[in-house]
Amino acid sequence: MRSLYLIGLPLVLGATSPPALPAQDTSVGHPAAVLVSGPREGQRAPDFSLPWASKDSLGGPSWFNLSAQRGRVVVIAFYPKDFTSGCTAEMKTFAEQFADLFGEDVVVVGISADSLPTHLRFAQSLTLPFRLLSDPDQSVSRKYGSADQGGYNRRTVYVLDRKGRVSYTDLRFGALDPKAYASLKAAVKDARRE
């Protein structure tokens, strides 16, 4: 079964394709619903390379390359902006519960449009045990259905299995919802078994 999100609201469809939606309803002059799309569960995750920062350093010429992570479970967390309350809560929870949520064998990355120097300060402020990737033009965020029209990312999380396939998506990750973290933990555990 496919899950699509129209303006952040889930809509579950059967096996048939959804009807095409117009970009704008010209009869009343108001925008129609925006279709959010990204890779679906079971599909290969789109490859990408992005510069990164960690609590210890800037990545320099060594960019994070998704295809180089094959053989490992990968968690990709798109988020709106460093140093904002929701993003701080999410990344702080990831850091504080890293061993329980993910474990040392899982690759975790956060992605926003923020600059590398901002990522470095943010990672240092929270002592993050994972890298933050900079996607200033949101080219990767768009591939994953995570870019919004205002230049920020929607808070979305993907878990990839060892073969690089999407095994879990949460297109409305709740940074303050313990159930969201419990679901993510279970998804990581499932991806390890695949």
Walkthrough of the structure:
The chain has 194 residues and is an alpha+beta fold. Helices cover 25% and strands 24% of the residues. Mean pLDDT is 85; it is low at 1-35.
Present the secondary structure layout.
Layout: E1 2-6, E2 9-13, E3 24-25, E4 30-31, E5 35-36, E6 49-50, E7 52-53, E8 64-65, E9 74-78, H1 85-96, H2 98-101, E10 107-112, H3 116-126, E11 131-134, H4 139-143, E12 156-160, E13 166-170, H5 178-193
Parallel strand pairs: 9-10, 10-11
Antiparallel strand pairs: 1-2, 1-5, 3-4, 6-8, 7-11, 9-12, 12-13
Task: List key phrases describing it.
13 strands; globular; Glutaredoxin; 24% strand; 3-stranded antiparallel sheet; 6-stranded mixed sheet; alpha+beta; disordered N terminus; 194 residues; 5 helices
Enter the CATH topology name of the largest domain.
Glutaredoxin
Query: Gyration radius, to the nearest Å?
Result: 17 Å
CATH H-level superfamily of the largest domain: Glutaredoxin
Please mark out the parts with pLDDT under 50 across 5 or more consecutive residues, or reply none: 1-35
CATH class (first level) name of the largest domain: Alpha Beta
- Average residue pLDDT: 85
CATH architecture grouping of the largest domain: 3-Layer(aba) Sandwich
As for the number of domains, it is 2
Question: Could you give the distance between the termini?
Answer: 19 Å
Q: Numbering strands along the chain, what is their spatial order in the largest sheet?
A: 7-11-10-9-12-13
Principal-axes shape call = globular
Strand content: 15-25%
Number of helices: 5
Order of helices and strands: EEEEEEEEEHHEHEHEEH
Number of β-strand runs: 13
Largest sheet descriptor = 6 strands, mixed
The SS-based structural class is: alpha+beta
